[in-house]
């Protein structure tokens, strides 16, 4: 068994840096590291810059080339993840065997959890669309088209990875005017068509505006080349939620399909005959009924 030496920080700045990296009940926003491989094409370089612009400010782009092979050796990615405290990564490369190659993945405890190698075809950059762009840091609306996303475990995990990669910071509420961007992923016949749109809210003559989509780029036609999925045990550990933030279940309270809150009240069994009810004139016996009752009692006594 190899014992790891624990290095204690010598400065206040180093102590604060280690505290920021410690496990938290509510984790920080996920940071993405964008890196180039040893050999890249102009198309891949522009694609990495465009995807980096979509991820800013929660992203860092490495200027130096990284001659790594993620599917053969993961140590370099894990080392850079620990150094930059990044849990998402995007790696671009270009070779004769695998042209215009993008590897997208995520980490758990600075170890590779999932990663997919995608071939990027028919790439169109942000600059090729001459129209206004969305503001930096805007939270996109993610749309997945196609029934095949739930057909296999491979597509389900890739869909989950896209959501994790592009969703942005977790928020509780968002106003209608804050929806500026829509990312669509259409799966058809083994190809994934990724498109980026700007959401335009125009007058409709009603209270709700008319929604129109304007493509602003970048756009890709992805093809899955290779993938590596985490084991069931590791994936289960990554999905664990601390008990302190789990919503406490309230007894005898439920919700119907319409969202209405329903409550159940438990009471002791009551004898309806002994209940004191409010006397009403309409329920009182008339004189004829009282005379008939007395006559019946006298007849029964004789």
Number of strands: 12
Report the CATH topology name. Rossmann fold
Assign the CATH superfamily.
Brix domain
Share of helix, binned: 10-25%
Structural class of the secondary elements?
alpha+beta
What are the low-pLDDT stretches, counting only 5+ consecutive residues below 50?
none
Order of helices and strands: HEHEHEEEEHEEEEHEEH
CATH domain class name:
Alpha Beta
If you average the pLDDT, what whole number results? 86
Strand residue content: 25-35%
Throw out a few tags for this protein.
23% helix, alpha+beta, 29% strand, Rossmann fold, 302 residues
Report on this model:
- The protein has 302 residues and is α+β, with helices and mostly antiparallel strands.
- The chain has a single domain (28-245), classed as 3-Layer(aba) Sandwich (Rossmann fold), CATH 3.40.50.
- The protein contains six helices and twelve strands.
- The protein has helices spanning 12-21, 42-55, 75-84, 153-166, 232-238, 287-301, and strands at residues 32-36, 59-65, 88-93, 101-108, 111-124, 141-145, 181-188, 191-202, 210-215, 219-228, 253-255, 261-263.
- Strands 1, 2, 3, 4, 5, 6, 7, 8, 9 and 10 form a ten-stranded mixed sheet that branches.
- The radius of gyration is 32 Å and the shape is elongated.
């Amino acid at each position: 068994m190899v014992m790891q030496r624990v290095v204690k920080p010598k400065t206040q700045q180093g102590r604060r840096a280690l505290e920021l990296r410690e496990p938290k009940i509510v984790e920080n926003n996920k940071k993405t590291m964008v890196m180039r491989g040893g050999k890249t094409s102009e198309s891949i370089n522009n694609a990495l810059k465009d995807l980096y612009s979509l991820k800013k400010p929660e992203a860092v782009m490495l200027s130096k080339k990284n001659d790594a092979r993620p599917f053969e050796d993961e140590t370099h990615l894990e080392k850079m993840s620990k150094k930059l405290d990044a849990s998402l990564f995007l790696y671009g490369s270009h070779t004769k065997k695998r042209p215009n190659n993008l590897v997208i993945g995520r980490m758990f405890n600075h170890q590779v959890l999932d990663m997919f190698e995608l071939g990027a075809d028919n790439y169109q950059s942000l600059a090729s669309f001459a129209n206004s762009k969305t503001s930096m840091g805007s939270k996109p609306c993610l749309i997945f088209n196609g029934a095949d996303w739930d057909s296999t475990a491979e597509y389900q995990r890739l869909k989950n990875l896209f959501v994790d990669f592009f969703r942005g910071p977790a928020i509780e509420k968002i106003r209608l005017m804050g929806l500026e961007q829509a990312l669509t992923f259409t799966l058809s016949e083994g190809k994934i068509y990724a498109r980026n749109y700007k959401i335009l809210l125009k007058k409709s003559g009603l209270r709700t505006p008319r929604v129109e989509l304007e493509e602003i780029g970048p756009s890709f036609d992805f093809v899955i080349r290779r993938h590596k999925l985490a084991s069931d045990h590791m994936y289960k550990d990554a999905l664990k939620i601390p008990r302190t933030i789990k919503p406490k279940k309230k007894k005898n309270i439920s919700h119907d399909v319409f969202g209405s809150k329903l409550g159940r009240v438990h009471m002791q069994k009551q004898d309806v005959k002994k209940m004191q009810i409010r006397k009403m004139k309409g329920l009182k016996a008339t004189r004829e009924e009282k005379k008939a009752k007395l006559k019946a009692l006298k007849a029964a006594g004789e």
